[in-house]
Each structure stands twice: as C-alpha cells, then as structure tokens.
Amino acid sequence: MLSGSSHRIQSPHRAGIFRQLPVGPIQTNCYIAGCEETKEGVVIDPGEEAERILAEVKALGVTIKYVLNTHAHFDHILANGPLVKATGAPLALHPLDLPLLRQNGGAGLFGLDAPPSPEPDLLLAEGDTISFGTYTFQVLFTPGHTPGHVSFYEASAGIIFDGDVLFASGIGRTDLPGGDYETLMASINHKLMTLPDETVVCSGHGPVTTVGRERASNPWL
Fold first, then answer.
1. Are 123 and 95 in contact (CB under 8 A)?
2. Where are the domains of the chain?
3. Residues near 37 by beta carbon (within 8 Å), at least 6 away in sequence
4. Taking the domain 7-217, which CATH number applies?
5. Which strands make up the sheet holding 159-163, listed edge to edge?
6. In 156-175, which positions are buried (b, 16+ CB within 10 angstroms) versus exposed (e)?
7. In this predicted model, what pLDDT tens digit does every residue of 135-188 receive, in sequence order?
8. Which pTM does this prediction carry?
9. Rounded to 5°, angle at Cα 150 from 137 and 106
C-alpha cells in the first residue's frame, strides 16, 4: 500500500529537517529527523513502505545515523530490515520490547504475516542520548502502551517523538499484551506533561499536536 506525501513539521525553536510520513495499512507515522548543517539524520518507526521512506531520505539528502523504534508493535517495525540494510545504520530499541520484536510485533494477533526484524544494535535506557549533526535526542522511558516504550525528546528544537503514548485528543491503547493504563498515564503525566507547552508532539498516529494543547483539551487528561 502506498500512502500520500510527507508532511513538514515546524519546530518552534530551531530550523531543521523534520518530516512525517504516514505509512502502511493503518497509516502509522514514520518520521525523518535531520540536521540541515551536516545532513545527518535518523528514521523513527519505519512501519512499512521502505522504498518510499528511502526515497524521501534521498530527496532530503540525509545520511541516516540511526533507525529508532519507539516500541516494537508490527506497524512501527515492518521496514526495520530494509532500512538497516540500505543505510547500514544501527537499530535501537528498549530491551523490554525485545520479546515483542521477536514475535514480529504481535502481527499474528491480527492475523497478519510480518517479516522478522533484525535484532537491535543499541539497547536504549532512560537518560540515554542519541546525537546526529547538531541535534541530540534524550531518551525518555514512557511505558504503558508496551513495557519498553520510549520517546525521543529534542529540547533545543522543542519536539518530542512519542510513538503511541499521547495523541491529539487521545492516548495509546492499553488493551494489548503488555499494556497497562496506570503505567501509561504515569508516563504521560510525569514525562510528557512536564515539558514546555510549546513542545510539538509527534505521535505514532494522526496529526501533530503540542503539550499545551493536550494539557488544555485532551479528554483523557
């Protein structure tokens, strides 16, 4: 399945390369983040359509330093293998999501076949940093949707890539294996809601939003 065009994301603080690409059967958001000065970048949650993601990377002139998974559900990892093979970039994931990764992201629960993902080269933990060009992601441990869910926060740009934790007017589901509602709400309240209101929230599904907008109007909060 081929999706529509990518969407530019505007940082509230710094110019940079930030693109949202809805991919795959349920339009999971894959993101490309890059440094305009050095053209180094990362791909976050390559859910499917590897050729399209790679074409976008090429068009942007970005060299991929890391392939990052916020978590290991199938719709966020289906293109891990092709992206790692094509770019030579290390794959990064939190170790608590390794069992899910090795179960092909739980695709079998939905009656789907999924190619196996390569094993991660880098195991993430709270407080880790991932640098590309002049940008540095801080790894935030944000479980609840899955046991090993993480978010990637770039403070100088005012952007967080939070996978399936917080959405525009919604929150991640907790009814799948490994999900826990109280843990998810703790992640939202103690990690995301402590960020500045202008922080742009780039979620795994749907449009971008901001911390302030969700603080004021999200019915789950």
1. yes
2. 7-217
3. 133, 134
4. 3.60.15.10
5. 129-132, 135-141, 150-154, 159-163, 200-203, 209-210
6. ebbbbbbbbbbbbebbbebe
7. 999 999 999 999 999 999 999 999 999 999 999 999 999 999 999 999 999 999
8. 0.96
9. 135
